[in-house]
Write a structure and sequence with these properties.
The complex is a heterodimer of chains A (178) and B (277).
Chain A (H helix, E strand, L loop, with lengths): L1 H9 L1 H12 L2 H17 L7 H23 L30 H9 L3 H12 L4 H8 L3 H21 L5 H10 L1
Helix pairs in contact in A: 2-3, 2-4, 2-6, 3-4, 4-7, 5-8, 6-8, 7-8
Chain B lengths: L12 H14 L5 H13 L1 H20 L12 H14 L1 H6 L1 H9 L10 H14 L32 E10 L5 E9 L4 E8 L10 E2 L5 E6 L2 E8 L3 H17 L5 H12 L7
Classes of the chains: A mainly alpha (178), B alpha+beta (277).
């Protein structure tokens, strides 16, 4: 069991990044990760192979998030009730000016996306999964991951461009231009 | 404005496909041939080069955008404890059978505290039940109440933020024999409901030490003439015990939660399951 603890601990940061992108709330994300740990520790059987274990772990978190969404019924369409068509309203590629891209601006941009867009970005860019691994977690073909990701990135760049957050390092430049 | 065609205004499948390929290129997910073609395209076309740079910047920035707090995997979970208990029981089945008669005798013996619920306990339970019905979610700007006055009664109200329980509401009420009372309701992000009841009724016969209640999931203690009760619904026993200790300590010392208590609370929370509500 000590081994399982260690294996889980190794995923703490990536799980949190995924949870935060889904929930957009630090406390909820922490709760989600702790719930995931408790469930994973309590599970009688776990996948022995590393990639299957990882996919299983992230699916636990995903399912807990879906449960949470259902129980709260907030303004967003729950993740499991969205189809890819829900993301098609967004551009297939960014449409505005090249935005100022920093950790701060993309974090705010991320918060404006749909749950499905946040999820795919979190899996690939935050948690560092390959397309094949993300596809395994989401139970979709890798081609779907590729197209969802491209649309999510276009939406993210648009959201960052529309944001009125200008990092201080860039503010002077923009003010002089105005 | 950029000179790139907008897919809003002029849907262009070729552009969308090119964007998808650039996105996959940045992730290193293209096959060798496609990757070489895309690299050539980036070298030849300044627009493609700029878009690839944006994608790479966004990917890198996202990787740094979310800082994780220190999270630890619980060493003991309810399920693990249950299984360990079962193993111990199975191993000691023989010994258990021998002592069964004694155990039955103990089980049937009346509890040390009288099971009948006294007036002050009923009043507290009623407040807890009413406040527990308040809807979620918690307003992030919920008041951090430390002292409040209800008809001249101003008991110390501990902050349980260290236990990740926020004050949702408080209500003054008349206790048995008109004793002034204050009920403060705390709510956790995982749905935990905890109510602190302070009743200035003299608290006769109540110890200053923290004691579990016989008739509810709760604890009781006395500070001067004030009877404090802390009630919870469906909270993990160990976590609730840690929360009660923190509330007891704070109500006696009137001080912010010390570091070791904070650690104990965080650990108890990490090892607990969400409240059953």
């Amino acid at each position: 069991m000590g081994d399982r603890r260690g294996e889980l601990q190794a995923y703490a940061t990536r799980l949190y990044g995924y949870a935060y992108a889904l929930t957009r709330d630090a406390a909820d994300a922490e709760d989600l990760v702790q719930d995931t740990f408790v469930r994973a520790m309590d599970a009688r059987r776990v996948p022995p192979e590393a990639s299957a274990f990882r996919a299983w772990l992230f699916r636990i978190l995903r399912n807990r998030f879906i449960d949470l969404q259902r129980s709260r019924r907030r303004e967003e369409t729950p993740l499991d009730e969205m189809s890819d068509a829900d993301d098609y309203g967004a551009a297939d590629r960014p449409t505005g000016e090249p935005p100022v891209i920093t950790a701060l601006t993309v974090r705010f941009g991320l918060m404006k996306l749909t749950p499905r867009q946040r999820e795919i970005l979190a899996l690939v860019d935050v948690a560092g999964f390959s397309y094949a691994e993300a596809a395994q977690i989401l139970e979709v073909p890798p081609g779907t991951v590729m197209s969802r990701l491209a649309r999510a990135r276009a939406a993210l760049l648009d959201a960052v461009g529309e944001s009125n957050i200008i990092p201080l390092a860039h503010r002077g430049r923009r003010d002089r231009r105005a | 404005m950029t000179d790139r065609p907008s897919s809003h205004n002029a849907p262009n499948d070729a552009d969308a496909a090119r964007w998808r390929r650039l996105s996959a290129f940045v992730d290193g997910e293209l096959g060798a041939r496609e990757a070489a073609e895309t690299a050539q395209q980036i070298a030849d076309d300044p627009n493609a080069a700029r878009e690839a740079a944006q994608l790479a910047s966004a990917k890198e920035a996202l990787g740094q955008a979310i800082a994780a707090p220190a999270l630890s995997v619980p060493s003991a979970t309810p399920g693990l404890r249950r299984r360990a208990r079962l193993r111990r029981w199975a191993a000691g089945l023989g010994a258990l059978a021998a002592s069964a008669a004694v155990a039955v005798g103990l089980t049937l013996a009346p509890p040390a505290e009288a099971p009948a619920s006294p007036d002050w306990a009923q009043a507290a339970a009623a407040q807890h039940a009413e406040l527990s019905r308040l809807p979620q979610p918690i307003d992030a700007a919920a008041p951090r109440l430390e002292r409040t006055t209800i008809a001249g009664f101003a008991p110390f109200v501990p902050s349980l933020e260290a236990a990740r329980l926020r004050i949702l509401a408080h209500i003054g009420f008349d206790g048995p024999d008109g004793a002034p009372g204050l009920a403060v309701h705390y709510r956790g992000a995982r749905g935990c409901r905890v109510t602190l009841i302070a009743l200035r009724d003299g608290a006769k016969g109540v110890s200053e030490a923290l004691s579990p209640l016989a008739h509810a999931q709760g604890y009781i203690w006395r500070v001067g003439a004030v009877r404090y009760q802390l009630l919870a619904s469906g909270m993990d026993k160990r976590r609730f015990a840690a929360v009660a200790q923190a509330a007891h300590e704070a109500s006696r010392l009137h001080q912010p939660t010390p570091a070791d208590t904070r650690l104990r609370l965080a650990q108890a929370r990490a090892e607990s399951q969400p409240c059953r509500v």
